[in-house]
Structure formats: C-alpha cells, structure tokens
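Most newcomers find our protein records easier to grasp once they have seen one. A learned vocabulary of local backbone shapes supplies the integers on the structure line. An example says more than a description, so a record of this kind follows:
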Amino acid sequence: MNLAEKHKVEFATTYTLGPGKNGGGGYYTLYSGGPDSVSFGELAGNKILINHVHPGGTPVASGYYMNGAGERVFSPTATDISSGAVTWKGDQAALQKLIDAGSPQRTSVIIPAEGRGGIYQPPFRFSTTSKNLDYSISGDNVVFFKDIYNRSAGPKGYLP
C-alpha cells in the first residue's frame, strides 16, 4: 500500500531547479494535500511539478472553469474568460500557472493510486492542452476514455 492509498489524500512531488547545469543541484519536495487536491507551494519559474497522485484512482487530468459562485461553467464565452468572470481550475490550470511563472516544464504526470473495480490504471502524462486521457493500458486491456471521466459512472467504454 502506498501513502496516497493509506491516507486517502493527494501527494505531489516537485523539483526546485538548482544553480547547476540544466537545473542541477536543486532539491525535491513532497507535499501532502486533501482527498481532491494538493497545494505545492509558491508558483515559481524554478519549480517543476514532477507528479501528483489521485488517491481515488481518477485517470484524468482535471481542467475546468468556475464562476464566482463556485459553480462549474462548461462552455464559457471568450468574454467570460477575458473578463475574469470564470477562472480555470484543476490540474491543467496549475501546470499553466507554473509555465506562466517561467517554469520550463510543459507536461506533468498523474499517478492514479487506487484501482477502480480492482484494475489499477498506469501513470500518465498530461499537458495544458491535452484532452485528458485518451487511452490507457492495463494488463491485456486497452481502455478508451472520452474527454471527461465520470467519477460515479466510471469509464465510458472498454475495448477487449
């Protein structure tokens, strides 16, 4: 059993670039969060989000908009976004904020910790523009997902 499964919270690992060649001489930090999120400290150009764990096994990177009332907005207009009426949240937004701060990072990794239905999902890489997880391989099965993973209903489809 790993830490995320034992404590049912998200963990994140970052690397802070050092003064050496290609950021060598830096240091790693492990952060502990809650069941659905983890804060990984200051957003800085010298920080790389190596990975974080989804303790419930969710095999997608979150990226969504919320309005001032804390409600999800599924199709915001360009005006909503530019005016600040909605804000981008989730895994993809956190990665974008690091990039905006000057981080050289362009992708990160999510580790789905707990298997759904006894099937563990492998770690996967995501970016700010990826449509979450397109497919995954688990044992002899290829699992295809369509843009959004519904937590209560599970994956939209399996192929043998």
Notes: The chain has a mean pLDDT of 78. The helical segments are 3-7, 78-83, 91-100. The chain has one domain: 3-133.
